[in-house]
Amino acid sequence: MFDSIANGIDWTWARNIVFIAYGLTIVSIIVIVVSENRNPVKSLAWVTVLLLLPMVGIILYLFFGRNITNKHKLSRRNRRKLKKREAVSHADFRKLDLSPGSIQNIRLAKSMADAQFYDGNDVEVFTNGADKFARLKTDLVNARHYINLEYYIFENDRIGNEIADILIERALAGVAVRVIYDHVGSFTVKNRFFKRMRKAGIMVYPFFEVTFPQLGTRINWRNHRKLCVIDGTIGYLGGMNIADRYIDGGRRFASWRDTHVRVEGPVVAALQYAFAVDWHFMGQPLINEAVLVNRPRQGNVAAQLLTSGPTSQWSNISLMFHKAICNAKRRIYIQSPYFLPTDALLKGLVTAALSGVDVRILIPRKGDSRLLNYASSSYITECLRSGIKIYLYEAGMLHSKMIIVDDDFVTIGSTNFDFRSFEHNFESNLFFYSREFTDKMLAVYREDLTHSTRIVPAKWRKRPLVRRAVESVVRLLSPIL
Fold first, then answer.
1. Do 348 and 431 lie in a common domain?
2. CA 195 – CA 175 distance, rounded (Å)
3. Is 399 assigned a catalytic role?
4. Count of domains in the chain?
5. Beta 176-182 vs 146-151: how paired, if at all?
6. Is 308 part of any domain?
7. Residues 332, 469: one domain?
8. 71 in a domain, yes or no?
9. Which domain holds residue 150?
10. Is 406 marked active-site?
11. 182, 406, 418, 448: which is the annotated catalytic residue?
12. Does one domain contain both 151 and 275?
């Protein structure tokens, strides 16, 4: 009986309603994208996806397209409290022998994010995981008061367990140990790994834990920072996560080339402040530990810490990169695992090269993401046409994030030269102002070039047509990758 009734009903109207509702949903999302007045390139990418792949586009937008709203990492009152606990005096950069460009960069960071300028720091550089983790483990073992550790990935492997064992031992000895790990970055790590630390008294929390119903509102914004503060006197920051592959290259790479720094001196106060802000953002109490009380001068490197993220008023690190590039007079040396520049940054690099600045970009021959490799390759032709020198690192995975400009500016940190780092991730970079330190990092960069191959424009133009087509298609999606 029910079959005969169903056969007698005209379902055309129902299908029409579904199609109309579906179409209105697509149009509504496009209107929202356009009305948000984002980067027009990014908006166009979303409109393209929604029109060409409507169902997929809706799902992608719900998870990856929306902006963070009504999210403030720290109130003004609490910000003042944390600032007062920076028991150090800020240096006067006008008294140092710095280039006009670096002075402008310092002022920009202060204006955007109240990033304080600190002189008298000692900086130790690590270009491989074995050296970095050996030094970090020694410092952790010697911790007497507190350890604040924040990493995108904290893997349950050999080095991960070695670090966890030290943290547990220190916590049992009465040291206050706090750990922030990114929930998506460490998504494959079983909860029992972190539960073992919690049982020992370690305060361990995932950043923006992705669970229902918050899945669609949290998955796109990740804490990509890699920093550690020990007793307020030692700080670590850079590109290395806690995982074995940062030591041996893992299964896919013969080696892993990265850059991380260990700092002693006043700038450690800035690292402590950055961690404290993230800690409070997750609903935890303000951190009370003092930083660098009565510590003597450690070195001669001036530095600023600049953080950036989707809750920032400005795209802090992206604007800082842009300013440094525009100020360049002699050289711009960049190394990054991915090269997906914003339109402004690409034009800045092209303009610099056309005006005679020595612009070099070093990226891996084989990266850890084939899709991002294609997207990065799509920008190479325009760069080569302007005279930018592109090098492909051959010795393994190049994961280092470093920029050198002229004679007294270097930045090292977690920020990749791509849209995701500039707009969606919580990132942190140290900016160093020192001719001596710049010379040191120039030597590191030039050593990396000996393991690299420079792209020859004539040969690059002859790459297969299919590859060029794939690069062009993927490039359309690069603003939302």
1. yes
2. 18
3. yes
4. 3
5. parallel
6. no
7. yes
8. no
9. 76-102+118-303
10. yes
11. 406
12. yes
* 322 in active site: no
Amino acid in the structure at residue 184: V
141 with 264, same domain: the answer is yes
376 and 289: one domain? no
Cβ 312 vs Cβ 320: under 8 Å: no
110 belongs to a structural domain: no
At which residue do the structure tokens 């079983």 appear? 190
Cα separation of 369 and 398, whole Å? 12
User: Is residue 224 flagged as an active site residue?
Assistant: yes
Q: Model pTM?
A: 0.85
Is residue 459 flagged as an active site residue? no
Say which of 323, 401, 408, 418 is annotated catalytic. Answer: 401
Catalytic residue among 224, 280, 322, 323: 224
**Set 132, 322, 323, 399: catalytic member:** 399
Whether residues 296 and 375 fall in one domain: no
182 given a catalytic annotation: no
Residues 43 and 80 reside in one and the same domain: no
Residue 69 located in a structural domain = no
- Rg of the chain in Å (alpha carbons): 24
pLDDT in tens, the chain (481 residues): 445 445 555 556 666 665 666 566 666 656 655 555 555 556 656 566 666 656 655 556 655 555 665 455 556 666 666 666 554 556 677 778 899 999 999 999 999 999 999 999 999 999 999 999 999 999 999 999 999 999 999 999 999 999 999 999 999 999 999 999 999 899 899 999 999 999 999 999 999 887 655 555 556 788 999 999 999 999 999 999 999 999 999 999 999 999 999 999 999 999 999 999 999 988 888 887 766 544 566 789 999 999 999 888 899 999 999 999 999 999 999 999 999 999 999 999 999 999 999 999 999 999 887 888 888 888 999 999 999 999 999 999 999 999 999 999 999 999 999 988 998 899 999 999 999 999 999 999 999 999 999 999 999 988 888 888 887 777 766 655 5
Catalytic residue among 42, 132, 183, 226: 226
